[in-house]
Design brief:
By secondary structure, the protein is mainly α. Helices cover 79% and strands 0% of the residues. It is built from four helices and no strands.
Length: 135
């Protein structure tokens, strides 16, 4: 069987398009399986916990309402404690940064100041907060 030029071109194009489609699908599977997952929000955690308690403990509506009040009160107390402790944590971070900066050479201090400024700008733009030491 002899194929025409049009049929050969069609089959070559078909193989090419199949490769593109297969590559795109494979890439999407790779991205989905390797992409970092965002941590659940506090509201998502709360919904999951209350749903589990309600299911496993057979909570009544009254018990569920009281549980939500307890959780609201606890969240408020934790936030209040965070606000109270924030200045102390900030002071510790600033002391650490000053000590670290003092051990640097003048050239290193200039670069360190740039790094700190860039990090502060990222945090103001909604970047990740400090995850560890404040250097």
């Amino acid at each position: 069987m002899k194929l025409s030029r049009a049929a050969i071109a069609f089959y070559i194009a078909l193989v090419f398009v199949s490769g593109v489609v297969l590559g795109a699908v494979g890439h999407s599977f790779y991205v989905v399986s390797t992409a970092p997952k965002r941590p659940p929000s506090p509201e998502e955690v709360r919904k999951r916990v209350t749903a589990e308690y309600q299911r496993r403990l057979n909570l009544t509506d009254d018990q569920l309402a009281k549980l939500n009040l307890i959780m609201d009160e606890t969240r408020a107390r934790i936030e209040e404690t965070r606000r109270e402790l924030h200045p102390a944590y900030q002071k510790i971070r600033e002391e650490q940064q000053k000590k670290f900066r003092d051990l640097l050479t003048p050239e290193q201090q200039v670069e360190y100041d740039k790094i700190r400024k860039e990090r502060d700008q990222r945090q103001k733009q909604g970047g990740r907060g400090p995850g560890g030491p404040g250097i």
